[in-house]
Amino acid sequence: MAEPQVRKARKGRFEPLTAAAVVFFLMAVAFAAAPAMNAGPTTLAGLLLLIGLAGVACLGLFVLRGSADAPAEAEPGAEQLVDALSEPAAIAAPDGKLQASNAAWKSTLGLGPRLPKGGSAAAGLFYAMTSARRGEAARATIKAAGAEHEVLVSQLGPRRFLVRLTGPGVGALALPPAAMEVLTAFTGAMPPPPKVLDAFAAASPFGAALLEGEDPFESLIVEANPALKAVAGGGEKGQAFGELIEPASRADAAQKLASGQGSGAPLEVRLAYDPARIAHLYLSKSDHRFVAYLVDVSEQKQIELQLAQSQKMQAIGQLAGGVAHDFNNLLTAIFMQLDVLATRHPVGDPSYEGLNEIKQTSTRAADLVRKLLAFSRKQTVQREILDLGELISEFEVLLRRVLYEDVKLTTDYGRNLPQVRADRGQLETAVMNLAVNARDSVRAHGGGSVNIRTARVTQEQAQALGYPGAQGDQALIEVSDDGPGIPPAVMDKIFDPFFTTKPVGEGTGLGLATVYGIVKQSDGWIAVDSKPGEGAAFRIFLPVHIPVAGVAPAPVAQGPKRPVARDLSGAGRILFVEDEDAVRGVAAKLLRARGYEVIEAASGEEALELAETHAGSIDLMISDVVMPGMQGPDLLKQARRYLGAAPVMFISGYAESEFSDLLEGEANVSFLPKPIDIKTLAERVKQELQKAA
């Protein structure tokens, strides 16, 4: 075996000498041929230069060939590293040449001095090395002795890789302690844990801290950027990082971290200096140190909660509105049937008391339905221009009667109070409910005071007081008390219908729900500010009404109330439109009994045909608002040319917003909310016919 090696060595030394001899031979030929070719000195010099360059190129190629064929020189410590591994392992250069391999590698794979040169196996190995340069442990498949083997490739340095045989289904192989010691000596010292924050973390707008210890919440702060104090209210050097987190939130975060939930994902924590503030905690570990990042997401979480609350209230409102509409139809039929029975069982009849009790119970049910309609924003509103100061000042007299002697009422009227465009009755109901709610809160703890404040606030002031989406100046109505406040656990439920903290039988849970619906239907916003033991403040924000330049606001009619008709009989042709058979049938029957001619229609389409048939002879149209197919407002628009100036009266369990707008632009249009009894209906019919006469 020694002879071939000697010959190879001699061949390696002979090739450069042969190249040099060829160069000198060519140069001698050039000198000898120069006189015969009549070549001058310049031509001869050029020819010699070309021959010399060719010789240098030949020498370079021979040298490169000799280096390429030479075996790769092993790195110091390479043999010791692979020998310390029990599985087949080798150290390879980027081009696949092996620098070292252990006995297990040689006996298992039997490979030559390099990994596969070509084919799919070499391509997979190349991609694995590329991935290893990014710090990943990549897998590849190599072929040896007609079999495929799966290997794990990891980077040891800029131009060396550790290749270990893993076998199919085997996970990443951990280095044994002996190999780790050799690896440290072979690659140099392992990268130490960070001692200072990098420039990015130090200048970031979110909190960043370098921690020393095994548990991030028990670790001490080695260094912190200036933003940490602004975010967490602390972060001095030497302080335990866990002190910045609220205790209950810290325990929850530690549990999630122990279960692996904090790996790569943020931990949501509450800050110790203000538990109302929420932050996302990101942790990155390096040896015995952590880098912690705190990002304040309080405003984001507040917006998410407001969106969720708004969606929940909207869904409940739609359900409540639908139930209220159908229930009002049933109550209307009950009231009218009770009127029929009352004529047959007058006072003194044994059945009179029972019928009267049924009517009182139905009236209480109707009151609950009205509150549901207010919450679901389905009430019909009559908007008018109101002076905020005058509205509360006039209403204050009634409020003092509602509050008991042990509750003190104070009012604070700001300057330059604005005008608002809203329904007077709705706003009075909202303020009344808030005042009664505050009264009950303070009386439950021995009495106290209720304060009502009105003011004009700027957009910035409104946002600071709890209206994040405020645009322009706002009108503020604040009802506050010095009671025990609202517990944080129920804060997100106080506007839910039927939710109450009062004992059973002492509250329906619709007071604040009604306020919420009224404010939303008035295009406003309601905010709550309360801390345990410090009372509560409910703030209603309404957009300021700005009159159109050059147009004087129309005065609000404050005429006398409609006189109550004593004689409920009359004459006239009435077109009665109602899709509920029970309501339409009994109402038409009772109106006919009082002298009216009633034409019944079960839908808007049928009513339009009847209006055309009786064009010019209809004295009054009574119509439901919400019906299958053609709605009441659409019917009015199309039937107006047949009705002429005849008055129109809408009745409904609830009315949509577009109907409220219709009332403002149409003449001779009125509204009567369900449930209604025959007396109320007959009175309004006679009043409308008298006005039109």
- List unreliable stretches of 5+ residues: 1-15, 59-73, 189-193, 550-565
- Report how far apart the termini are: 133 Å
Domains (count): 5
Q: Can you identify the CATH superfamily of the largest domain?
A: Histidine kinase-like ATPase, C-terminal domain
Structural class: alpha+beta
Q: Kindly report the average pLDDT value.
A: 75
CATH architectural grouping of the largest domain: 2-Layer Sandwich
**CA gyration radius, whole angstroms:** 46 Å
CATH domain fold name of the largest domain: Heat Shock Protein 90
In order across it, which strands form the biggest sheet? Answer: 2-1-5-4-3
Number of strands: 22
Percentage of residues in strands = 15-25%
Question: Which CATH class of the largest domain is shown?
Answer: Alpha Beta
Question: Could you say which overall geometry the principal axes of the C-alpha atoms support?
Answer: elongated
Largest sheet: number of strands, sense, barrel closure: 5 strands, antiparallel
The proportion of residues forming helix, as a percent range, comes to 40-55%
Number of helices: 20
Explain the overall architecture.
β8 (267-271) and β9 form a beta hairpin. This protein folds into five domains: 11-69; 78-187, 2-Layer Sandwich (Beta-Lactamase), CATH 3.30.450; 199-296, Beta-Lactamase (2-Layer Sandwich); 384-543, Heat Shock Protein 90 (2-Layer Sandwich); 573-692, 3-Layer(aba) Sandwich (Rossmann fold). The radius of gyration is 46 Å and the shape is elongated. It has a five-stranded antiparallel β-sheet. By secondary structure, it is of the alpha+beta class. It contains 20 helices and 22 strands.
